[in-house]
Amino acid sequence: DGGITQSPKYLFRKEGQNVTLSCEQNLNHDAMYWYRQDPGQGLRLIYYSQIVNDFQKGDIAEGYSVSREKKESFPLTVTSAQKNPTAFYLCASSSGIANYGYTFGSGTRLTVV
Amino acid sequence: EDQVTQSPEALRLQEGESSSLNCSYTVSGLRGLFWYRQDPGKGPEFLFTLYSAGEEKEKERLKATLTKKESFLHITAPKPEDSATYLCAVQGTSGTYKYIFGTGTRLKVLA
After folding, report:
1. What's the average model confidence in pLDDT over B36-45?
2. Chain A interface includes B36 (CB < 8 A)
3. For residues A26 and A3, is the Cβ–Cβ distance under 8 A?
4. Which structural domain, as residue segments, surrounds residue B24?
5. Which of A1, A30, A33, B85 is most buried, judged by most C-beta within 10 A?
6. pLDDT, tens digit, for every residue of B9-28?
7. Touching check for A104 and chain B: CB below 8 Å?
């Protein structure tokens, strides 16, 4: 079945450590997105990519980095510069056609220890 | 500035008690309005897309409607399995595919 796979489901980060969240899709979608979800707030866009080897900053890109070397993959690195990284991270993809909305992964919960 | 406001924040219903969730939006030009369902600890699941005022979409006990300023998600005779957070998002016509999400309505249906 087609879908988006995020891993790991839970991730713990120590102070000063970089961590990478994986996102893989087999939907043949061109566009991929990373969102952060915090309690009481709407989903906030971190980065998005509409084509391989190209990506743009979203609203809260500081302290994060991404790459898009393959159409299927869009990993997110949370760097030590991100001062408040504890959150639920969601990866999504779309065909670029608004009709079908986004397909989301199941999320990664990141906690700073 | 594009904005989405959902109300109420939380809603408790008895099984079979119909109600509506509201999504008010401000956007320079509407490309689409989207409804999603999100269960705890999981990613949102796509429900509907609406494009123009007067449009309606239905799926089982859910019906979404759209006006020029707001959308409603009507839940008819809900069941406990309808308990979830319902998210609304809008996509404007200002160049990118960026969505603006509301904070959601947490629905609890009691048996």
Report:
1. 96
2. yes
3. yes
4. 3-110
5. A33
6. 999 999 999 999 999 999 88
7. yes
